[in-house]
Design a protein that fits this description.
DNA Primase, Chain A, 5-stranded antiparallel beta sheet, 16 strands, 580 residues, alpha+beta, Dna Topoisomerase Vi A Subunit, Chain: A, domain 2
């Protein structure tokens, strides 16, 4: 994986104002010394996330989410840490090349290696003399060299064993090649799954090739498309085509266009409209809905302009609405799909259809009218009943507006229509609050003490002189890293320290949770000393409890007498503390 030096990361973080960066994603309002906003990491209704300009960190006092600017961007955009650093670098104007960031920590390393190698072979084929006709076909459809490169488009040449020969010569196991859907095994030999087709790689969310769509380009085969079968690394329902290329454009445009087929997505993308994804079919899965939901933008449905596409628009839109995703709809008149529409009418007219997209509810009303003769009383009654049934799930305002439209359009008495609809009583919906895990006195003390030590080196010195020990391993590990960081840098800064421990998964999560749970505006040495004193008492009581257990459970009489003496001494110390 691409790495960035710690100095470079700190330069980027120190150049970024966390308040300014977070304000790009959610509104913040200043209250006292800090800024507050609605937390995007839980079902928040009141501003519960605090952003500190002084310490350059954020924390939510409801869900305990916390961290620095990189943590926020990474979790908000659902991207890797390195990608988050790149996003922040771009915002503050610091050049940073991270190359292709991919998740290499996988048990399917060999499978990904084979797919990557295969993709390079197919790309090379397209640029060879065997690829001349395929290249001409792509150019004729407006697909430039840049688009070919972005989508890693290649060619399976007209040879039944070409890929088989190349891959087996490289000593790749024939069984794995068969499992990946690259070849069809035939006894101890095999032959290529894809022959004489333009090859469109299917990439997962991290940009790794997991499968292919093979498309005919010379009309010699009756099957227009052949897709890779589901494999260990390719689960169709977990992937949305072009996500890796489009994700940053989607966030910039604050919307996503969702089309049916791979070629539709490529056509739209090649027209300079980059916020486009493809379902690779007419249905949508829970996993795909989760991917779209994390993007936190409206979805513009632009499925094929046929009966199947119209029905799919209803079904997919319904599932997206259930997930509280804002849905809009474009139906392309005069063309079957976006690919055909752009070729036929041009990019400008296509862009107009996006601007004039309608909301999903209005589309449903339009859909219910299709193929009905509303001058016929029976069909009009059935249409009105269908609309009323659809209104059952809508809010009162939508019901009111829709009934008035029906009344005016079809000259039906409003009160008559209203009797057919049940209006819900307006009740205040209780705010759903993320339950907080009950924190013990020990945890509260430790969290605050560790927070202080991550902010200022002097508090580490006080801790070491007064206590110097904590009960849990993860707490001790965090203290060790604090000590190392201060020894290395002669100082400590909370936001930079959080970046430093980014690669320590358990410590990173622990430290970010501490930032989320500790809500203070400024450090105070007297308060810190009070917590040190309280922690010292709690540790002594905990040790006394352990000694008591040893007394009651021990068999050695000398060991028992020794523990009794320790118990008496410990009790004296606790009494002294309580009397102070």
């Amino acid at each position: 994986m691409q790495t960035i030096s710690e100095d470079k990361i700190n330069e980027i973080r120190n150049s970024a104002d966390i308040v300014s960066i977070i304000s790009d994603y959610i509104p913040l309002k200043m209250q006292g010394r800090n800024y507050f906003g609605v937390c995007p990491f839980h079902d928040d209704h009141n501003p519960s996330m605090s952003v500190s300009k002084d310490r350059q960190i954020f924390n939510c006092f409801v869900c305990n989410k916390g961290g620095n600017v990189f943590t926020f961007v990474k979790d908000y955009l659902n991207i890797s840490f390195i990608e988050a650093v790149k996003v922040v670098a771009d915002k503050v104007g610091i050049p940073l090349d991270i190359g292709n960031v991919k998740n290499t920590n996988t048990k399917y390393k060999l499978e990904y290696e084979i797919m990557d190698y295969t993709t390079k072979i197919l790309q090379n084929n397209l640029n060879s003399k065997e690829g001349i006709k395929a290249k001409e076909y792509l150019e004729g459809r407006g697909i430039t060299d840049k688009i070919i490169k972005d989508f890693k488009i290649g060619l399976a040449i007209n040879n039944n064993t070409y890929l088989y020969d190349v891959l087996t010569k490289k000593k790749y196991d024939i069984n794995i090649l068969d499992e990946l859907g690259l070849i069809t095994k035939d006894g101890i030999s095999g032959y290529d799954k894809f022959v004489n087709r333009i090859m469109i790689p299917i990439m997962n969310l991290e940009g790794q090739v997991v499968g292919y769509t093979g498309r005919i380009f010379n009309g010699e085969d009756s099957a227009k498309y052949i897709n890779t079968k589901e494999t260990k690394i390719y689960k169709k329902g977990n992937i949305i085509f072009n996500y890796y290329n489009a994700k940053n454009h989607i966030r910039n445009e604050k919307s996503v266009i969702l089309v049916e087929g791979n070629m539709d997505a490529i056509r739209v993308y090649s027209s300079g409209i980059y916020n486009v994804l493809a379902l690779m079919g007419t249905s949508i899965t829970k996993e795909q809905i989760d991917i779209l939901k994390k993007l936190r933008v409206p979805v513009i449905l632009m499925l094929d302009n046929d009966n199947a596409g119209a029905l799919a628009t209803i079904n997919v839109g319904s599932e997206l609405e259930k997930a509280n995703i804002v849905v809009k709809v474009v139906r392309l008149e005069g063309a079957k799909d976006p690919d055909e529409y752009i070729i036929k009418y041009g990019v400008d007219k296509f862009k107009d259809t996006i601007i004039n997209s309608i909301n999903y509810f209005d589309y449903k009303l339009k859909y219910l009218k299709e193929n009905k003769n509303l001058n016929n009383t029976e069909e009009l009654v059935n249409y009105i009943k269908s609309v009323i049934k659809m209104l059952d799930k809508e809010d009162n305002l939508t019901k009111e507006i829709t009934l008035k439209k029906l009344s005016n359009e079809y000259n039906i008495d409003y009160d008559t229509l209203k009797k057919e609809v049940t209006f819900k009583e307006e009740v205040k919906i209780p705010i759903k609050v993320v339950p907080k895990v009950k924190s013990t006195k020990y945890q509260k003390c430790v969290n605050l003490i560790l927070y202080y030590m991550m902010c200022d080196s002097k508090y580490l010195k006080i801790f070491n002189s007064k206590i110097g020990y904590l009960n849990n391993q993860i707490e001790r590990d965090l203290v060790t890293e604090i000590e190392y960081y201060i020894e290395k840098n002669n100082k400590i800064n909370l936001a930079d320290f959080l970046t430093y421990i980014e690669n320590y998964d358990n410590l990173k999560e622990f430290a970010n949770n501490i930032c989320g749970s500790v809500n203070i505006e400024e450090l105070n040495e007297e308060i810190f000393l009070d917590y040190i004193k309280a922690l010292d008492e709690l540790l002594k009581k905990e040790n006394l409890k352990i000694i008591k257990e040893k007394i009651y459970n021990g068999n050695d009489i000398n060991e028992q007498l020794e523990n009794i003496e320790k118990q008496i001494a410990m009790k004296k110390k606790i009494i002294e503390i309580e009397e102070v």
